[in-house]
Amino acid sequence: MRSPAQLAQAAVLTYNFEVEQGGGSGFLKLSNSSLTGIGSEQIAVGEGRFNTFATASASKEYYDLAGAIALFFQGDFRGLQASGSDGEIREIDLPDVPGGPFYVKYDSRAFWSMATNGVSSPDRWTSYFSGYRETIISNRERVLAIDGRRIISSARVSYTLVDTAAEPVPEPISAGGTALALAGLSWLKHQKKKVA
Question: What is the model's pTM?
Answer without folding.
Answer: 0.75
